[in-house]
Amino acid sequence: MADGDRTLAERMRRRDPRAFEDFFERFANPLLAYLEGMVRDRALAEDLLQETLLSIWRSLDRYEERGAFRAWVYRTATNAALSELRRRRYASTEPIDGDRLEHADPRAPDPAAQQVTGARVTAIERAVDRLDDEHRTVLLLRVRNECSLREIAGILGIPEGTVKSRLHHAVRRVREWVEGPQGREVTDELR
What we know:
The structure is a single chain. The chain is an all-alpha fold. It has 2 domains: 1-94 and 103-108, Rna Polymerase Sigma Factor, Chain: A (Orthogonal Bundle), CATH 1.10.1740; 110-191, Winged helix-like DNA-binding domain superfamily/Winged helix DNA-binding domain (Arc Repressor Mutant, subunit A, Orthogonal Bundle), CATH 1.10.10.10. 72% of the residues lie in helices and 0% in strands.
């Protein structure tokens, strides 16, 4: 896939008419699921997806091939989501009501959620929502987008050891917040 991503990036740089369509087909759904997990709002995630895709298209000349194209794409999406979350935090005067948060699209592939159902999924989603941005980002990239630790490090521009540490702490916190032995089984699968 990395060679295919490099080829796609080069085609996009040359402004190949079909390249953006191929890019959209490859990245739109996984990015949307990731962004929705970050901001917990489908409409906002769709807006951020458009912003991310446009930003990537406009800044292709700044993409350096020494890093993986996929990591650059996810870093762009992550930056958009974190900026929006910061903006909302500063603009918000009320705490977020967990009961009003929308759930991720059930059609989006989510390996961890396929192992659990109903209340357990809700409990895990609420626990993930409680994580700070740094820990939630690492956990979602690992679970929802099946990124390797190396890819996550590249996406976030942090050492792989930091990724491991954040993932460990995220899983530990989710485990603490999800009650019962079933919660332990679920969070063990997140690693």
